[in-house]
Design goal:
Blueprint (H helix, E strand, L loop, with lengths): L4 E2 L7 H11 L8 H11 L7 E4 L2 H11 L7 E4 L6 H8 L3 E4 L11 H7 L4 E7 L8 H10 L3 E5 L7 E2 L2 E2 L6 E5 L12 E4 L3 H10 L4 E2 L16 E2 L10 H11 L2 H19 L5 E2 L7 E2 L5 E5 L4 H10 L2 E2 L11 H4 L9 H9 E4 L7 H14 L4
Parallel strand pairs: 1-16, 3-4, 3-5, 5-6, 6-9
Antiparallel strand pairs: 2-10, 7-8, 7-14, 9-10, 11-12, 13-15, 15-17
Helix pairs in contact: 1-8, 2-8, 3-4, 3-7, 9-13
Length: 379
C-alpha cells in the first residue's frame, strides 16, 4: 500500500533541532531569553503588535478572554465553525456563548449575523479565520466596538496571512495563535496572544503567570522584601518554555516559505479538481491573502462520508473540520439546539480537508487528486 498521507503534519529540519539543543545546553529551560526572542519574532509578523507566548492555542484563548475581563453575566458572540476551544474557554470564564452563523463559502462568521447577535451584554466578538482565510476583520471590529465590546481574532489557522493589506494580528483588540504540529508553524504545543493595548497585554502577561504582580509600584505591600510578589487576580501557569520558544523562532524564520508552499499546493488542488462535478472548491475573497492551513473541499450531494471512507481506505488521511460547536453534548446539555446556524451546518455537512503541509510533494497532491477523481468516475 502507498504511504499514508495525514491531513497535516509538522516540517522540522536540522536547524530546528539545533535551536532546541542550544537551549538544552544553556542555563534557561523556561522563563528565559528564548521566550523574549520568540515574542519579538512573532511581533514581526503582526505589524509590531506585541505577543505573549503561552502553552497552547486553547491557553491563548483562555488568556485572551481573561485579559478582556470576560466573566459571569457577559456574552461572547462566537463562530460555531471552529474547534470547541474558541467557545469553551469563554464558557469556562462564566460567559454565555452566543453563536452567529457563517458564510457557507468561507465558513467565516457573517457580519450581519454578528450584528443580530450582539446585545448590551456582549463583551467579546470572537471571529475565526477558518482554513487560513481571514474573516472580515474591519467590519467585525466596527460592529464589536459599536456594541462596546472587543474583537478577538482566533487566528489559529492564519498566521502569515493578511486582510486588506494588513497582517493578521494587527486588526483585532486581541489575536490568538496556535502552534500545534498541524498548524502553519509549530512549537510542538504552544500558542500566543497579541494585543496592541498595553492594559490588555499586561493582563494577558499576568494571567499566563499565575496573576503574579512583581511591579512594586502596583503592590499593596511593596516593602515586604526583594522576594515579594503578589496575586491580585487569579491566573494560571500557561508559560511556554524556552525549549519550545527556540523551536518557534526557528520555524518563524521559514514561515514565508511555508505560506508560499501551502499556496502552491492549494493552487495545484484547485487546478486538478476545478472541472469536477460534485465538489465545490475554496474561495478567496477580494482583499484576502490567506495563509492556507486547510484545503477545505466541499463535497456536494450528501456524499462527504462516502468520499471520506473511500480516501481513508486508500491511505489518504482526510479530516473533517469541524462539527458545529453547539453540537457537542456539553453545549447541548446547556440548551443549545441543532438548526440554530444553518449556514454552519450546511458547511459542516459538506466539508472535507485534504492533506496540506509544506513538505507534501506535488506527486502526493496528484495522488490525492487522482483518487478524488476516481471516486467521482473521472480519470
Amino acid at each position: 500500500m502507498a504511504e499514508f498521507l495525514p491531513y497535516g503534519r509538522q516540517s522540522v529540519v536540522a536547524a530546528d533541532v539545533e535551536a532546541v539543543a542550544e537551549v538544552l545546553r544553556g542555563d534557561w529551560l523556561t522563563t528565559g531569553p528564548a521566550v523574549t526572542r520568540f515574542e519579538a519574532d512573532l511581533a514581526g509578523w503582526t505589524g509590531g503588535v506585541p505577543a505573549v507566548a503561552v502553552t497552547s492555542g486553547t491557553a491563548a484563548l483562555h488568556v485572551a478572554y481573561a485579559a478582556a475581563g470576560v466573566g459571569p453575566g457577559d456574552e461572547v458572540v462566537c463562530s460555531p465553525m471552529t474547534f470547541v476551544a474558541t467557545a469553551a474557554t469563554a464558557a469556562m470564564h462564566g460567559a454565555t456563548v452566543v453563536f452567529a452563523d457563517v458564510s457557507p463559502e468561507t465558513a467565516n462568521v457573517l457580519p450581519d449575523a454578528v450584528k443580530a447577535a450582539v446585545t448590551a451584554r456582549t463583551k467579546v466578538v470572537a471571529a475565526v479565520d477558518f482554513a487560513g482565510h481571514p474573516a472580515d476583520l474591519g467590519t467585525l471590529g466596527e460592529l464589536a466596538h459599536e456594541a462596546g465590546a472587543l474583537l478577538l481574532e482566533d487566528a489559529a489557522h492564519s498566521i502569515g496571512g493578511s486582510w486588506q493589506g494588513r497582517p493578521v494580528g494587527s486588526w483585532a483588540d486581541l489575536t490568538t495563535f496556535s502552534f500545534f504540529p498541524t498548524k502553519n508553524l509549530t512549537t510542538a504545543e504552544g500558542g500566543a496572544v497579541c494585543a496592541a493595548d498595553p492594559e490588555l497585554l499586561g493582563r494577558a502577561q499576568e494571567f499566563r503567570n499565575h496573576g503574579l504582580v512583581r511591579d512594586r509600584s502596583r503592590q499593596r505591600f511593596p516593602d515586604e522584601g526583594g522576594w515579594h510578589q503578589e496575586v491580585h487576580a487569579f491566573g494560571l501557569n500557561y508559560r511556554l518554555p524556552d525549549v519550545l520558544c527556540a523551536l518557534g523562532s526557528s520555524q518563524l524564520s521559514r514561515l514565508s516559505s511555508f505560506v508560499a508552499r501551502r499556496a502552491e499546493l492549494h493552487a495545484r488542488y484547485r487546478a486538478g479538481l476545478s472541472d469536477l462535478e460534485g465538489v465545490a472548491l475554496p474561495v478567496t475573497l477580494p482583499g484576502a491573502e490567506p495563509a492556507w492551513h486547510l484545503f477545505a473541499l466541499r463535497v456536494l450531494g450528501g456524499r462527504r462520508r462516502e468520499l471520506y471512507e473511500f480516501l481513508r481506505e486508500r491511505g489518504i488521511g482526510v479530516q473533517v473540520n469541524y462539527i458545529p460547536v453547539y453540537w457537542h453534548p456539553v453545549f447541548a446539555d446547556l440548551g443549545y439546539r441543532r438548526g440554530m446556524c444553518p449556514g454552519a451546518e450546511r458547511f459542516y455537512a459538506e466539508e472535507l480537508s485534504l492533506p496540506l503541509w509544506p513538505d507534501l510533494s506535488d506527486a502526493d497532491v496528484d495522488r490525492v487528486i487522482g483518487e478524488v477523481r476516481a471516486f467521482f468516475g473521472h480519470a
